[in-house]
Amino acid sequence: MSKLSHINTKGEAQMVDVAGKEVTSRTAVAKACVVMKASTLKLVKSATAKKGDVLATARIAGIQAAKKTSDLIPLCHPLAISKVVVDFKLAARHIDVEALVKVEGKTGVEMEALTACAVACLTIYDMVKAVDRGIVISDLRLVEKSGGKSGTFKAK
Q: What is the pTM of this model?
């Protein structure tokens, strides 16, 4: 069994020391799904929801969340993120949300991608909850990461 990097020898939580790590180009992609009524999705597509343009707001929220991840997740390092892309694919009754985050740094951006994706999904919910409280957010996951000592990961 491998050792957890965020736990010290006494079993206490710790921030990982990245001082000796090499600066490399690192990328992570996370995905999730927001399921809703077809009528709700129609509001999203037409940008006629009462609160405004749902996808534009969710995109900005996701980008902002990626930049604020270290404020939300206690042991994450603050990073000088170089790129965040939040994208949406609309289907008949759901929206697939994808977040890509890049950095030149000593630690990865998996948490930033996951946070961006989660907050974009939550923002979609917030924007249309008045007409559809039955929305389901599911399948939040890391689908790909590259860079750093552990190399590339691609979900199956």
A: 0.91
